[in-house]
Amino acid sequence: MTVRFLVSLLIALLCFTSSKADKVSLLPSPETSSVFMSSFATAALLYPLDLLRSLSMTSPGTPVPKLVGDFYKDFGAKGFVSQGLAPEVSRATVMRGVKFALYPRFHRRLFSGKDPHEGTTATKIAAAAATSVPEVLLIMPLEVSKILLTTDKTNKYGNSMIKALARTSPKKYMTGYLGVQYRQMSWGCGYFSTIGPYRKLVDKVAGGEETSNAALKSLVSGFAAGVTGAILNTPGDTVRSVVMKRNLVEGVPASFFPVAREIVREKGAGSLYAGFGAKAAHLGGGGALMALFTPMARGWCERRMAGGGG
């Protein structure tokens, strides 16, 4: 039921945000197909980094070597490439897919059909903020299953996303919503409003033709924009991680603002940036890979749909 509802919601959103600039078709457009293909590849490649980020943020203030050592004791070496892999790749694929597919559509819908590159910083931020709302609603059950599986020391869920969700009350699927909403909105606003300026800066510094070394320039500008988003969203994401762990794993009621005050009071404001190194590498890498993969995948999709082969 949950899966059918989420798929239906996504289809409805794609239809709602379609403008005259979007071709109407029963098949996914090259724009949408390329985004989800790129999202899946990015999620799979970055899973180990995301696991490290998640461990750091659910236990702010705990040294990373200790977290890694404890995780190894609980799950073994295999755990670093398997524990919670399915929900994380699913979550990250949906998350980035929805974000990058809906963002240009929301921009066109909200601002008289203008593509993002024709917009201002303010319009890009507004479109990114609007995109984050349905994005978060779609990924919340996956966020919950991810927390349950990465902390499942007794293997009661058998590393199964479906079992984790089936044994969890649907009422808990929205646990930590405020923190997830903060995280997604702040990263999206930071990324989409800065990747254009970063690309112009990279072009200026690198010199030469704008199309020369395009892949490398996409990686650099995408990484810089991704790290900018990470700077903005890390404090709220740290709080979100603790809130979800306490509610879902420890059975202790917790909410966003009281937990934020507690962390600052007991461990200092700097602890809100727990795991920032891994997070910056993860989100910067995600931004870089999406900037690199998406145009490549779109070109391939357009050739396939035009009958030009691979």
TrEMBL record:
<dbReference type="InterPro" id="IPR051752">
    <property type="entry name" value="Mito_2-oxodicarb_carrier"/>
</dbReference>
<keyword id="KW-0999">Mitochondrion inner membrane</keyword>
<keyword id="KW-0677">Repeat</keyword>
<keyword id="KW-1133">Transmembrane helix</keyword>
<keyword id="KW-0732">Signal</keyword>
<feature type="repeat" description="Solcar">
    <location>
        <begin position="213"/>
        <end position="300"/>
    </location>
</feature>
<keyword id="KW-0813">Transport</keyword>
<feature type="signal peptide">
    <location>
        <begin position="1"/>
        <end position="21"/>
    </location>
</feature>
<protein>
    <submittedName>
        <fullName>Uncharacterized protein</fullName>
    </submittedName>
</protein>
<keyword id="KW-0496">Mitochondrion</keyword>
<dbReference type="InterPro" id="IPR018108">
    <property type="entry name" value="MCP_transmembrane"/>
</dbReference>
<keyword id="KW-0812">Transmembrane</keyword>
<dbReference type="Pfam" id="PF00153">
    <property type="entry name" value="Mito_carr"/>
</dbReference>
<dbReference type="InterPro" id="IPR023395">
    <property type="entry name" value="MCP_dom_sf"/>
</dbReference>
<dbReference type="GO" id="GO:0005743">
    <property type="term" value="C:mitochondrial inner membrane"/>
</dbReference>
<comment type="similarity">
    <text>Belongs to the mitochondrial carrier (TC 2.A.29) family.</text>
</comment>
<keyword id="KW-0472">Membrane</keyword>
